[in-house]
Amino acid sequence: MTVQHLYSDPYATRCTAIVDNEGPNGGILVNRSVFYPTGGGQPGDSGELSWGPDKTRILDTRKAPGDGIELILAADGPRPQVGTEVEMKIDWSRRHRHMRIHTALHLLSVVVPLPVTSGAISEAKGRLDFDMPDPITNRDQLETELNRLVSLDLRVSEDWMTDDELAANPALVKTLSVKPPAGTGRVRLIRIGDGGDQVDLQPCGGTHVGSTAEIGRIRVGKVEKKGRQNRRINIHLD
Description:
- By secondary structure, this protein is α+β, with helices and mostly antiparallel strands.
- It is 16% helix and 38% strand.
- The protein has 3 helices and 15 strands.
- Helix 1 packs across helix 2 (139-151).
- The chain starts with a strand and ends with a strand.
């Protein structure tokens, strides 16, 4: 099991850890991490691993059995032995863009209040697929509303709910294809806004910025038809 400090501080960029074992995908398992593992449409973090005089690139971060975190290392670099104390440093520019895009996609799900069938995040853009039979005719208005929410500088915060509480509030789950992880007793929620200014609350295991203003200006890109009643909305960071 890996202690994941990214949830207590998504702005932490480095930490020390012990190499626990070899990973199932050719990487290494560590006992603590601030790196986000691939999941929920958000890519795994990349960065640098160092120990003593040695260092190598971390190309990807993945989930491992038993709540473990596996760091995928560059094949042409040195490799730490099991038991070695290492320091990991996130490629912060890349992670921060993922955080901005991820929070922006939550706002998109507010502006387009339809069931979400899938989503994806990258450095350059993000997208959500909606169960949307009819085409969008007001893309400019959609972009204007997204940027209005960004400009409100709403606080983005973390909350938790028990599995039973979530089961009693199914409307909080916006995604049709990806269900929140259950069985651990509680589910993480991301809240945008406080009190009467709250605009969104939904289960999410990803990393987010601290306020909507940090997202920056959003540009709505292509709106694509994907199947009989599925439409994809792409957004970009200007």
